[in-house]
């Protein structure tokens, strides 16, 4: 499986950085996880990476914040299926229904395609789903988060139903029990991770820099 960070607070090459997150997962199908804040920047970065919106077969949205769904209109098309937490507002649901092939509401843990699962919506305040990806060599599962509002610890715990934890990629928000990451073999702190630099320093041997343009093979 190949992951490409399309949108992030940091970027490399000719890609633009901006507050937000989006990642393309190339599995059995091409899945775009979140869409960043701006459709313009998302389109620019996709073009730079050679990704056409028509190639995206599935969009999975972690939560309803603007820095994750703001770019949605730039990638919606008539053949795409969109996975959203069932708590999304009626307005957003309607907007997606009008331009997508299918809207799938997620509540509990579920499979999306072979090797790609969702934790289901978690959290009490801001509800959020995270994806759970199986590594090629079956070493375990890698959790892909948007902002981790329900708490990274809670998300990692929920992901364990799909296998042994191998790694985590995405926004960790205010997560501060850094020692809990010790068990993991791959740590990729992105987007809103408040303690990104500290995590990179603390786990030098297994932390991977995150920014738009980064490719991660799992
Ligand atoms: Zn958020
Ligand atoms: Zn965010």
Describe the structure.
It is a single chain. The chain is an alpha/beta fold. The chain has a single domain (about 1-215), classed as 4-Layer Sandwich (Metallo-beta-lactamase, Chain A). It has helices at about 40-50, 65-70, 90-100, 150-160, 195-200, and strands spanning about 1-5, 20-25, 30-35, 60, 80-85, 100-105, 110-115, 115-120, 130-135, 140-145, 165-170, 185-190, 215. The strands form two sheets. The chain has a seven-stranded mixed β-sheet, with helices on one face. Strands 7-8-9-10-11-12 form a six-stranded mixed β-sheet. One zinc ion binds near residues 63, 65, 147 and 149.
Write a brief structural summary.
The chain has 218 residues and is α/β, with parallel strands linked by helices. The protein has helices at 39-49, 66-69, 90-99, 152-159, 196-202; strands spanning 2-7, 22-26, 30-33, 58-60, 81-85, 102-106, 110-113, 116-118, 131-134, 141-145, 165-171, 186-190, 215-217.
């Amino acid at each position: 499986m190949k992951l490409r960070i399309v949108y992030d607070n940091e970027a490399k090459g000719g890609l633009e950085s901006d507050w937000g997150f989006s990642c393309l997962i190339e599995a059995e199908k091409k899945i775009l996880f979140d869409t960043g804040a701006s459709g313009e920047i998302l389109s620019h970065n996709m073009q730079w990476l050679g990704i056409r919106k028509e190639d995206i077969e599935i969009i999975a949205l972690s939560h309803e914040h603007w820095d994750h769904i703001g770019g949605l209109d730039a990638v919606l098309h008539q053949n795409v299926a969109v996975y959203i937490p069932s708590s999304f507002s009626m307005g957003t649901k309607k907007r997606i229904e009008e331009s997508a092939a299918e809207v799938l509401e997620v509540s509990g843990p579920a499979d999306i395609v072979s090797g790609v699962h969702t934790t289901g919506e978690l959290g009490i305040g801001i509800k959020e789903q995270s994806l759970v990806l199986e590594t090629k060599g079956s070493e375990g599962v890698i959790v892909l988060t948007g902002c981790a509002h329900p708490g990274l610890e809670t998300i990692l715990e929920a992901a364990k139903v799909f296998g042994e934890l191998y790694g985590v990629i995405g926004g960790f928000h205010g997560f501060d029990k850094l020692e809990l990451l010790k068990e993991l073999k791959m740590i990729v702190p992105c987007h809103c991770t408040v303690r990104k630099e500290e995590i990179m320093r603390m786990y030098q041997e297994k932390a991977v820099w995150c920014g738009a343009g980064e490719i991660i093979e799992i």
